Fold:
Amino acid sequence: MAISVRDVMRRWGGRAIGLTVTGIGLYVVAPSLLTMFGSWPRLAEVRLYWFAELALFETLSLASLWWLTRIALAPHPGDAESGTHPRLGWGTAAAAQLAGNAASKVVPGGAATGGVVQAKILIDAGQPGPAVASGLTATNLLGTAVLLLLPVLTIPALIIGPPPAHELQLGLVVSVVLAAVIVAIGVTALTWPRVVATAGRGIGAAVHLVRPAVTGEGLATALLAQRERIAAAFQGHWWRAVFAAAANRMFDYAALVAALVAFGAHVRPAEVLVAYVVAQAFAIIPITPGGVGFVDAGLTSLLVVAGVPADTALIGTLLYRLFSFWLPIPVGALAWAGWRIGTRSGSGEPTA
Structure:
């Protein structure tokens, strides 16, 4: 049977375009990556306890995602008794997230590819497909909502004024305070839909002045729809779900603060948080897998703008990305291999 050019373009055209964009993106960011990796020898200046601290923060950040996934996929009493929806184990949740996270960092397609890998592991482990789809969607929506909320919460700190420059260590305290505020705001939004609608109308009215296509009612309706999806997925577990989502971001931010403190940086914690949020937004743009290069260059530049010396910003970003981006890739590969071995042995759980 002859294959037409249209069929070939329909099947491979999108992939070819994606690979081309990825190749161009990697070519553009290659100089900045080479410059950053050229600072690698300076990591020898870091005391070992800083490596342990960053490893702890990033492990807690990932564990928060595993917990959030288990909450989203928690079976209802009837499902648990009938055996149609088994309870998700920590091992499977960790293997799925780690493997999906690694795939999103090395395969073109970013988060979409990682989501497919994570969903495959969860479904093969016995989780119902519809529950996995709705649960992962709600998890991503909640994580994005927390990320978008962070810059709003930093505005008061930027207006009031900075603490003394040598108190960047307060960033670790700031992460705890912000986590508590995020939990309070998140539970309020999930409990009272009117709060979400009112906020949507207010934000929509402000955006309408710049973009007439956006209206207060339209944005309020969209926010309420997303709120319903999150509320349905985490019904009865709102406090824990919002806490887990906040902990994921705040532990990751704490790792960035620790990386800068390790090299004696003097900068305001609020400005570091703004740089962190913008860098995370770069990671969402699927130009390169996981935003590699763009996140590194963007974060370094933003830290310099915030007042961090260029060489300190460069090596601090390298140390942070080592634990938040590069090391999870081989760990995710090992998690995938462990899950495959566990599946072949019939246990359905990753082996040690």
User: Anything to note?
Assistant: Residues 260 and 316 are 5 Å apart (CA to CA).
